[in-house]
Structures are given as C-alpha cells and as structure tokens.
C-alpha cells in the first residue's frame, strides 16, 4: 500500500480537471452512435469478466455488459430477453448506476450518490485519470493512498477536487506502466484497485491452474485487455465453477438486499477496514455477535447476518460457509 505524504501545497496544486472530464464524458456520450458501441468502453463484461459481444453503457461508467442471450448477465441487469434485444437493436444502453447516479465505491463496494450537480449529497467521486472511470468514497481512497495525511486528502476529494485513484501505479514499486515494455505492463485486478507490473506480480497470481481438483486456480489472463493483464488478486477467492471470484460484486440501485449483501461481503474481504483503529472504536459484544458494522460512518449500513438466509441467484454462494 502506498505510503506517501501529501502536503497542503501538493493538494492545492493538483489540476482541477474534473469539470473538464465531466464535460468530455458528456461529449463522448453525445457523439456515440450505435456503430461504435463495441469500440469504446471496457473489453470485458463488468458482471462476468468475459469478452465477446458486449454493449457499452452510454453513461459515465465506461463499463460494458453482455446483453446477448448467451450469458446470464441480463438477469443481473434486471432485463428481460426482449428488452435486451431491443436495446441491442435500436436503443442506447444506460446502466442503472448511471441512470440514477448511484455508483459503487471500488474499494468498499457500497453504493453512493455520484450526482455532481448536488455536491452537498454526493458520496462517491470519479477518478480523473483518462482510462479510468472508477468511483470512490473520499474516506476509502484517502485511507488507501495517503494513510499518513488521510483527513486532508479526504477533504480534498469530498470537495470535488480532482484525484487519481490507486490503479495508476504498481502497488509494489510505485512506478507507472510502460505499454511498450512487456515486463512493465500493468496487471490489473478486476475486483479492487490493486495493480502490479508484470515483473512485480506475486508468484501466487498464476497464468495456468496447477494440477489436481484442489490445486490453485488461475488468476491471470494475457489476452483479455489491450496492453494489460487481467488478474484477480489474492484478496478474492476464486470460485472453481466460475473460474472467477463470486459474481455478487456489481450492485445496482433499487436492490437493497443486494446492497447489504455486498456491504457484508466487502467487510469480510477487507479485514483492514473492520479492524481499523482510526475509524472504529472497540465494538460492543452484542454488535459483534450480530455481524454489524459498528463504526459511525453513515455510509456503512451492514445488516445482521441473519438477513442472508441464502445466496442471491447470481452467485455461487459463500465459499467459506
Ligand atoms: Zn457478462
Ligand atoms: Zn453506466
Ligand atoms: Zn468506499
Ligand atoms: Zn483511476
Ligand atoms: Zn512494479
Ligand atoms: Zn483485487
Ligand atoms: Zn465501517
């Protein structure tokens, strides 16, 4: 994790390109016709991480989705086969996150308002980097980028000032990428802002599964993303049948059960958050028993584990249960 110190001057001198980016995104969306739908946006589906016949969201998220009938992804999107067919044939596709301006923080997974026309209630903010459209809570990204001057950076992001998320430098050597030098290509996690150079990849992130039914699973793919390696980092358990981590990571607004499910999942996956001394005081035993979040953040709304009687239909269930 980055251990950098941001000074007030540094924060002040960061360019205010956020407004520019917002305008550029609006411009991009306006200029997009049905002919170049596949050319822009991500090369893999946001839900199943597979390539193929993808439809890009025309909103600001830059994500792509399978709207064809060969994948199960339209179910997660809440579309019928006919609705999906209509979108492919004649409509522009806007995902529910972009439609309702509610996007997930890429660190904790919780939904928050991304409405930058109402800054008093905006909760998640978009990275300013050209190739990046991820959203973050100010607190989450500040904790990860500047643990030593967290509060200052948090205020900076919350004020709508531009920032670059942790996905643009190697988590090991802190250097940027070089697309021309293979060893300096980025390997990018699909589930969290963890990025390695190819040469800095941990040994556990393997390109070929080890032999045997119980052997370590494949975690890296070379030909899914242009000039980049697609990985699932060690923080995420691979579900054997899916060959990916559990597919409960995408949360759309209007689905409160999924939202709390995701929040609980994020809490389990990120022990750093739940044990952080700065943000959490010691929990009362009752709260701990109920598996509730005991911090005072209004962004945290973890429900008791008894709510989750069974996994939701899109997932393969808990691995550790
Ligand atoms: Zn898909
Ligand atoms: Zn979208
Ligand atoms: Zn967050
Ligand atoms: Zn970014
Ligand atoms: Zn590196
Ligand atoms: Zn990861
Ligand atoms: Zn919390």
UniProtKB/TrEMBL annotation:
Pfam families for the chain: PHD_NSD, PHDvar_NSD
Domain Zinc finger PHD-type: 44-99, 104-169, 170-237
Gene3D superfamilies: Zinc/RING finger domain, C3HC4 (zinc finger)
Keywords, sorted A to Z: Metal-binding, Repeat, Zinc, Zinc-finger
Species this chain originates from: Zea mays
Protein name: Zinc finger PHD-type domain-containing protein
Region: Disordered, residue numbers: 269-291
Keyword Zinc-finger: yes
Keyword Zinc-finger recorded: yes
């Amino acid at each position: 994790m980055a251990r950098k110190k941001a000074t007030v001057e540094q924060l002040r001198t960061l360019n205010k390109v956020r407004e520019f980016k917002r305008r550029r995104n609006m411009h991009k969306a306006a200029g997009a016709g049905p002919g170049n739908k596949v050319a822009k946006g991500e090369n893999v589906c946001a839900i199943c991480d597979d390539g193929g016949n993808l439809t890009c969201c025309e909103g600001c998220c830059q994500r792509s989705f399978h709207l064809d009938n060969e994948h199960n992804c339209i179910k997660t999107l809440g579309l019928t086969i006919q609705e999906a067919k209509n979108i492919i044939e004649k409509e522009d596709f806007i995902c529910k996150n972009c439609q309702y301006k509610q996007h997930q923080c890429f660190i904790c997974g919780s939904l928050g308002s991304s409405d930058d026309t109402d800054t008093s209630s905006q909760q998640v903010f978009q990275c300013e980097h050209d190739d990046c459209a991820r959203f973050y809570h100010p607190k989450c990204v500040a904790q990860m980028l500047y643990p030593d001057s967290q509060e200052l950076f948090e205020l900076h992001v919350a004020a709508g000032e531009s920032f670059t998320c942790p996905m643009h430098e190697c988590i090991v050597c802190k250097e940027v990428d070089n697309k021309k030098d293979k060893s300096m290509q980025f390997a990018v996690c699909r589930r969290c802002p963890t990025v390695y150079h190819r040469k800095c990849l941990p040994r556990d992130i393997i390109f070929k599964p080890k032999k045997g039914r119980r052997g370590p699973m494949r975690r890296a793919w070379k030909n899914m993303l242009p000039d980049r390696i697609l990985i699932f980092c060690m923080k995420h358990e691979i579900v054997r049948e899916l060959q990916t981590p559990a597919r409960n990571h995408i949360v759309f607004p209007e689905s409160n059960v999924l939202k709390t499910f995701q929040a609980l999942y994020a809490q389990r996956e990120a022990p750093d958050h739940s044990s952080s001394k700065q943000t959490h005081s010691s929990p009362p035993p009752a709260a701990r028993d109920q598996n509730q979040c005991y911090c005072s953040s209004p962004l945290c709304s973890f429900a008791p584990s008894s709510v989750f009687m069974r996994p939701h239909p899109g997932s393969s269930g808990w691995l550790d249960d």
